[in-house]
Specification:
- The structure is a single chain.
- About 45% of the residues lie in helices and about 15% in strands.
- The chain is of the alpha+beta class.
- The strands form three sheets. It has a six-stranded antiparallel β-sheet. It has a six-stranded antiparallel β-sheet with strand order 4-5-6-7-11-12, covered by helices on one side. Strands 15-14-13-16-17 form a five-stranded parallel β-sheet, sandwiched between helices.
- Strand 4 and strand 5 form a beta hairpin.
- Helix 10 packs across helix 28 and helix 11 packs across helix 20.
Length: about 625
């Protein structure tokens, strides 16, 4: 895990000062070494978190043996030893995966990406052609931001590094603000800063002079179609293989442990391959949200060393610190406990295994049940009118501010169940509709947006998978949106803020391809999520864990907004600066009053405004 940055520009400015400032802005990503390399118009920078080959000889930027290519690389190649053994007539100078990756690229070019099992974002500069090759891993575990404008090409692991250069002038992307208000994160190639983009997962890009081209090198849907349906034993074997290759040899490793089947199974399977596997759990003082007692019992029964960190409501200073690392507006309420978990675990370990990806590839979310229920509902005559009627009746029920209560789920389901399968899937996590956003946003932003609709981002994703069954389309869209731009963005920013590396065994491409060769209806039903995975892991997990209902990892924001964070909330959303984005104080007051009187659970909507206001204060 590291941070990379750099630029290519023919402008006359202090390039060494610029790369030094860029590296300083992302220094938290790797504190073991910080180096740069420059030649004519190109400058590359790298800050290193040493995981494989701790020797300084593996520092970057690294030059190829023939002297033609220079690489900066963030991530890990898990099949490093296998690839190393496959390269003929090659004597490595180091034990690093960086050198192996560079040698593969020297010999195979972009084709080498198909051989990599890992998480990565890297840049290779060709000193002869003066071209730049950029690539990102299949799921987008590692981030890659870039800007291509009249001043040149700039890239970095975090957008904040690009903001520091004289090659970019900050400008707000109003479409991204609209998207954030819809679903709490920014998806696709967009960022909140106009002109700064994300390289999408499973893509590479070539910058050659003033020309640029982008290619998708891996298509999960197509890969899965070519496979036969795997057995449960084959899935378990793939999961074990994925865990084994993600256990580092040189540094300490642990596991983030919750009460769910993903992290519990990973911890037990990993324990078979290592003599020391400490586990770490976050608990809330609010008992309704706390699962640490269950985890404590599980860990004791299976002789796992478990450390539990507990916390209450965050202070405004803690929220502001998180906002510094998250330079994109971000809503996810699990960010707070996850940020604290990474911070505390980093005092003990350098690498942690997580359960990220299990819900996406094996259908663990409640939204998948909603997808299936919606498809069944559309077989009922006059379903759109019936679901709308039920939704209007449910509005008379008082809100339940519990942990994603059934009350909230039912209201959200029937409000959108009459829409098409694509639109309803998009809407399960919707915060504000297009009409509601019009009542919040400033006149300038509304005018610039015109007829823009945030659903268009998801619509394009659905179009890419139109030949697949509807339930699988929805799962694939989740991978390209929710997983890449919410779950993995959160994981990377929280981990890197504390300079700790996270590895997710469920996001091994071999396992994902096999999982998507399983029909979605075999993975879950209306009563049970992850049905196939639960049955697969029945030989690994005790019955009380394998059958345990999914808890989720959200925070008790409803009570926080009513109590300890109330004053900070109003100070922030009613500030003069925030009014340039959201001037509708009356609408915010109405949302809050409806929330505290239990007329409607507006906790998610209010939290989204709160996080956006804190982001605006720090980054605009």
């Amino acid at each position: 895990m590291c941070g990379i940055c750099g630029f290519k520009s023919n402008r006359d400015f202090n390039k060494q000062a610029a790369i030094t400032t860029m590296l300083a802005s992302i220094a938290h990503r790797g504190r073991d070494a910080s180096r740069s390399w420059s030649e004519e118009e190109i400058v590359l920078g790298h800050c290193r978190l040493s995981i494989k080959d701790l020797d300084s000889r593996s520092d970057q930027p690294m030059i190829s043996t023939d002297g033609r290519y220079v690489i900066v690389f963030n991530g890990e190649i898990f099949n490093y030893n296998e690839l190393k053994a496959s390269i003929e007539d090659f004597i490595p100078r180091t034990n690093s995966d960086t050198e192996i990756l560079l040698e593969l690229y020297t010999r195979e070019g972009a084709e080498c990406l198909n051989r990599l099992n890992g998480m990565f974002a890297f840049v290779v500069y060709d000193r002869i052609k003066k071209s730049i090759f950029c690539a990102r891993d299949r799921f987008g575990v590692k981030p890659f931001y870039y800007c291509l404008n009249q001043n040149g090409f700039i890239f970095a692991s975090e957008a904040k590094a690009i903001l520091t250069t004289p090659l970019y002038q900050k400008q707000l992307n109003n479409e991204a603000i609209s998207d954030y208000l819809s679903y709490g994160y920014i998806t696709g190639s967009k960022t909140v800063f106009s002109g700064i983009n994300k390289l999408e997962p499973a893509h590479y890009m070539i910058i050659d002079g003033e020309k640029s081209s982008k290619v998708c090198y891996w298509n999960l849907s197509e890969r899965a179609k070519a496979l036969s349906q795997p057995s449960q034993s084959e899935i378990l074997e793939l999961l074990q293989s994925s865990i084994n290759c993600r256990l580092p040899q040189e540094v300490s490793v642990g596991c983030f442990l919750s009460s769910g089947i993903d992290s519990t199974s990973i911890s037990l399977l990993a324990k078979q391959h290592t003599s020391n596997l400490p586990t770490f759990t976050f608990g809330f003082e609010n008992k309704e949200y706390d699962e640490s007692d269950f985890v404590k019992t599980f860990a004791a029964n299976h002789k796992l060393d478990n450390t539990i960190f507990k916390s209450g409501a965050p202070t405004i200073e803690e929220l502001q610190e998180i906002i510094f690392y998250f330079d994109q507006p971000f809503f996810d309420t699990s960010t707070i406990p996850f940020f604290k978990l990474c911070r505390m675990a980093s005092k003990y370990i350098k690498t942690a295994l997580t359960g990220d990806g299990g819900d996406e590839i094996f259908a663990g979310y409640e939204t998948r049940k909603a997808d299936l229920a919606c498809l069944i509902g559309h077989k009922i005559p006059m379903w759109p009118k019936l679901s709308s009627l039920i939704a209007s009746l449910l509005d008379y029920l008082p809100a339940d501010s519990g942990k994603v209560s059934m009350n909230y789920k039912l209201k959200q389901f029937f409000k959108f169940a009459g829409l098409s399968p694509e639109e309803s899937h998009y809407s399960w996590r919707l915060l504000y509709t297009e009409k509601e956003k019009q009542q919040l946003l400033s006149a300038n932003i509304r005018e610039s947006l015109g007829n823009y609709n945030s659903f268009s981002n998801f619509e394009r994703c659905f179009a890419n998978y139109s030949d697949r069954p509807v339930l699988q389309q929805q799962a694939l869209v989740d991978l390209n949106t929710w997983l890449a731009d919410d779950i993995l963005y959160k994981a990377d920013q929280c981990a890197m803020a504390s300079t700790i590396e996270l590895r997710s065994p469920f996001l091994d491409y071999r396992l994902a391809e096999a999982a998507f060769a399983i029909p979605e209806k075999s993975k879950f039903n209306l009563l049970k999520g992850k049905k196939f995975l639960r049955e697969t892991l029945s030989s690994v997990l005790p019955a009380n864990v394998a059958k345990r209902k999914k808890e989720g990892f959200g925070s008790p924001i409803s009570s926080w907004l009513k109590g300890p964070l109330k004053e900070s909330f109003f100070d922030s959303v009613f500030s003069d600066g925030f009014s340039s984005l959201i001037p509708a104080k009356g609408a915010i007051e109405e949302l809050y009053n409806d929330h505290i009187t239990d007329k409607r659970d507006n906790s998610y909507r209010l939290w989204a405004l709160f996080m956006l206001s804190l982001w605006q204060k720090r980054w605009l």
